[in-house]
Amino acid sequence: MTTPVHEGLAKAKESAVHLEMRDAYQPSDPEFLAWQQGKRLDPTDRSSWWRPFLDVVAETTARGVAMKRARIISEPVTDYIRYEYDVTFPNVAAGEHVRWLPRRKAADIALPGTDLWMFDGTSVLFTYFSGIGEVVDREWCTEPAVVELVKSAFEAVWERATPHEEYRPH
């Protein structure tokens, strides 16, 4: 399935950054529901957790594209963020760099109003959500002032955030 994110990753030559700022997404996600019932990924059984998007990540990073994901989160974390934390190791294994920033450490950063992907520092894909975290729309933007805001916001978040390997949710 080709999505706008897949299209952006396929065209990226240098970088793909993803900024996430919600404390919950898609509450009806079957994997999240299974996690709530006790399902955990087994790091030693790669076939049980490798999924198609990770192929895209691995292919993208193998081309030399730096993939970074920063998550701004409330603490104490929600169940959904704890779930995301638990299932992030496959992204890291595929070559993505992931960092976590508690919301209180982001209070003085001028942030875009919604989650986004930015590709090669030239185009931004905004994702709009319903109140409960379902994706309702996506929109591309190449306006230089907006791209510059996104770039500076992401750089500030990345600089302050804790690498996945060092972060512990609380």
Structural class: alpha/beta
Q: What name is given to the CATH topology?
A: Endonuclease, Chain A
Poorly predicted ranges (pLDDT <50, ≥5 residues)? none
Share of β-strand residues: 15-25%
Compute the CA-based radius of gyration.
16 Å
Strand order of the largest sheet: 6-5-4-1-2-3-7
Order of helices and strands: HEHHHEHHEEEEHE
In CATH, the homologous superfamily goes by the name: Endonuclease Chain A
* Number of self-contained structural domains: 1
Ends distance: 35 Å
Shape: globular
Summed up, the helix count is 7
How much helical structure, as a percent, in the residues?
25-40%
Biggest beta-sheet profile: 7 strands, mixed
Give a verbal description of the structure.
The protein has 170 residues and is α/β, with parallel strands linked by helices. The protein has one domain: Endonuclease, Chain A, CATH 3.30.870. It is 35% helix and 24% strand. The protein has 7 helices and 7 strands, in the order αβαααβααββββαβ. It has a 7-stranded mixed β-sheet with strand order 6-5-4-1-2-3-7, sandwiched between helices. A hairpin with a 3-residue loop joins β4 and β5. The radius of gyration is 16 Å and the shape is globular. 23% of the residues are buried. The mean pLDDT is 96.
